């Protein structure tokens, strides 16, 4: 009887890629995917530990899969929670059979001494017309609120050759390049700046669409902007986090609202249809009413298409843990509400503006597609006729918009 596995993934797209690679090793071990976790011989939970909320979700998921699994099966916990808390996690949750940090094989059959580098493991064929491709692990920055470098380590970029091989193996129409600090790709290999430009140019020869997530603003150079625009996917995911200069310095981050607006204007002058996404942290220690007003004004001026607002989460071992000026939870919620309301209106207006337009979309599944304006899983979608072929591009005309999503018919 072939042994079966179940892999449950939490957290970010980078974790999704790690899970895909774990699946590849289990398939290579001769195992098959279980249709139900209750049938699996090994249940893997690939966890997230970025913030408290994510850690709680990871623990809840581990316990729920412990309830679901069959007797005699193995419960393996991997990912950031495993890497960050290792033995402590094993002691606090005896339900877990194996805590496998990064680099520890997750197989039923031990292969002593086998090198297990998640970053370079092969991927099974993609299950959708698009796929995330993780081009580096770790991060060399030290943003005040972020613990990721403490457990994902220093940046380690892959070679362009191994990335292109993976893209060919995946055989998808769209690749979404991800890393903790994507625009710094290759810098750790001492091959000079801007390896990211060469990577994007070469990746664009292997897939119809190349999309980039997590761009640190100081690395949004003219050559990178030109290269992104040349891919035909003018989509800019800028990791801004805030816009007030003194507050960004407290976050140990570069830039300010004026610099960011200048970049956005520069891109829009080259491509008026360019699409922007960003994330902001609300309530980081020391955030004043003036800082908040500056962020509100930036959001109103920048008119980004998509924005995420996240309440500051105190993280052990981070610079921010030692800072004074805690913002009361009620005030954080109030500020989040103001920002969310403003942004929802802006997003709706940018979707309404598409009504009547004929756009090119990639059909992800029956009735559901995306244009270059929507990244998978995090932005809205384009509802299309259910008989449009999955995995193909189609030309459609937008007839209606509802919040983040639009409805379209054949052009
Ligand atoms: S760039 Fe900053 S926020 Fe992003 S992973 Fe690195 S340290 Fe964390």
Characteristic terms for this protein:
34% helix, 411 residues, OB fold (Dihydrolipoamide Acetyltransferase, E2P), 11 helices, globular, single chain, 5-stranded mixed beta barrel, binds iron/sulfur cluster, Rossmann fold, 5-stranded parallel beta sheet, alpha/beta, pyruvate-formate lyase- activating enzyme
Question: Could you characterize what this model shows?
Answer:
- With 411 residues, the chain is of the alpha/beta class.
- It folds into three domains: 4-118, Methylthiotransferase, N-terminal domain (Rossmann fold), CATH 3.40.50.12160; 120-352, tm_1862 like domain (pyruvate-formate lyase- activating enzyme); 358-410, Nucleic acid-binding proteins (OB fold (Dihydrolipoamide Acetyltransferase, E2P)).
- 34% of the residues lie in helices and 22% in strands.
- It is built from eleven helices and 18 strands.
- The strands form five sheets. It has a five-stranded parallel β-sheet, with helices on both faces.
- Helix 5 (160-170) packs parallel to helix 6, helix 6 packs parallel to helix 7 (222-230) and helix 10 runs parallel beside helix 11.
- The longest helix is centred in the C-terminal third of the chain and has 24 residues, at 329-352.
- It binds iron/sulfur cluster.
- Iron/sulfur cluster binds next to helix 4.
């Amino acid at each position: 009887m072939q042994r079966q596995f179940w892999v449950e993934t939490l957290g970010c797209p980078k974790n999704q890629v790690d899970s895909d690679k774990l699946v590849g090793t289990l398939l290579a071990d001769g195992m098959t995917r279980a249709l139900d976790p209750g049938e699996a011989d090994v249940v893997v939970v690939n966890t997230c530990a970025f913030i408290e909320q994510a850690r709680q979700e990871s623990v809840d998921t581990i316990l729920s899969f412990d309830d679901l699994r069959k007797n005699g099966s193995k419960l393996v916990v991997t990912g950031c929670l495993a890497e960050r808390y290792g033995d402590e996690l094993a002691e606090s949750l005896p339900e877990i059979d194996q805590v496998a940090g990064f680099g520890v094989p997750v197989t039923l059959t031990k292969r002593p001494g086998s090198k297990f580098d998640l970053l370079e493991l092969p991927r099974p064929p993609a299950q959708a017309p698009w796929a995330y491709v993780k081009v580096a692990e770790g991060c060399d920055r030290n943003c005040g609120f972020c613990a990721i470098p403490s457990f994902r380590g220093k940046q380690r970029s892959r070679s362009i050759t191994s990335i292109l091989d993976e893209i060919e193996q995946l055989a998808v129409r769209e690749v979404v390049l991800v890393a903790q600090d994507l625009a710094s790709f290759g810098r750790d290999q001492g091959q000079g700046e801007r390896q990211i430009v060469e990577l994007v140019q070469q990746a664009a020869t292997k897939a119809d669409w190349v999309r980039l997530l997590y761009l640190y603003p100081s690395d949004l150079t003219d050559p990178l902007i030109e290269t992104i625009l040349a891919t035909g996917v003018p989509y800019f995911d800028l990791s801004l986090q805030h816009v007030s200069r003194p507050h960004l310095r407290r976050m140990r981050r570069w830039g300010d609202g004026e610099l960011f607006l200048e970049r956005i204007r520069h891109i829009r002058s080259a491509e008026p249809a360019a699409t922007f996404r960003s994330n902001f942290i609300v309530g980081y220690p020391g955030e004043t009413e003036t800082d908040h007003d500056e962020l509100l004004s930036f959001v109103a001026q920048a008119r980004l298409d998509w924005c995420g607002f996240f309440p500051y989460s105190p993280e052990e071992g981070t610079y921010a843990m030692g800072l004074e000026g805690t913002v009361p939870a009620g005030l954080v919620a109030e500020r989040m509400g103001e920002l969310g309301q403003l942004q929802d209106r802006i997003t709706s207006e940018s979707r309404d503006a598409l009504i009547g337009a004929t756009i090119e979309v990639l059909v992800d599944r029956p009735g559901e597609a995306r244009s270059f304006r929507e990244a998978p899983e995090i932005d809205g979608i384009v509802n299309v006729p259910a008989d449009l072929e999955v995995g193909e591009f189609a030309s459609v005309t937008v007839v209606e918009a509802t919040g983040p999503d639009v409805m379209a018919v054949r052009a």
